Amino acid sequence: MAKKIMPWIKGFLTAYAMRAVINAPLKAEWYEDKADFFTNSVFELLGRYDFVFLFFWIVCAVFFLYMEGRALKKDTGITVLSLVFAALIPLGQVLLNIGTLSALFGSVVNVIKAIFMIAGFFLFFREGLSYLADLFQKKNFLTKETDLIAEHIFFAGFLVLETVFFLCVLTNFPGNLCYDTEGQMMQVLGEMPYSTHHPLLSTFLMGLPVKASVAITGSKAPGIFVYMIIQSSMLAAALASTLSVLKKRGV
User: Where does a domain end: 137, 155, 188?
Assistant: First the structure.
């Protein structure tokens, strides 16, 4: 019984991690009494439960059920890497949304929330990275000697990097933009005049997906998400190309 329930528990933790947002700590003086403060703290800890959460929960649970059937080995390197990736997401979210880590460590609710987030992301990353490692370590079906990583170093590197990038963008949907990027998108949308502060091609690359999104859906969010995926894919391709060049040079 416990074995059947465990994938759903793991899926719930991962869905919680993907949907949780660490906010500025609640202060007792904001509320009329301790009971009101405690109630709001509990609701803050519980997070958001909506259709998106339910979708993530089901998808993640199915993923864990599938991975349970494969029973892959999790080596120490993958475990450590998964823990590092998992910890960086809530820490980065705190720095982005609040600007200081004191907001995390100065709140019991935020510490507990961060622990749940790390646990959920850790479980997901460990299974995902174990799957990728197993996939690329399988022997080539022709030579029986060369593994897939050695044969396809660019593809392997790109797939691993883009998987991690995609998860980070997905958990921060539609993505995080700096001031300059927002300005470039506004230029293409006609909300401000074009300038020579950035290359025109760069401005079009950032703004056209958003303009198309507004025209089709009436919202900027899908277009921003598409741009973030394009940007992360280009970065993953550049880094994977570096791995390919290093391999050719015998490094």
Answer: 137
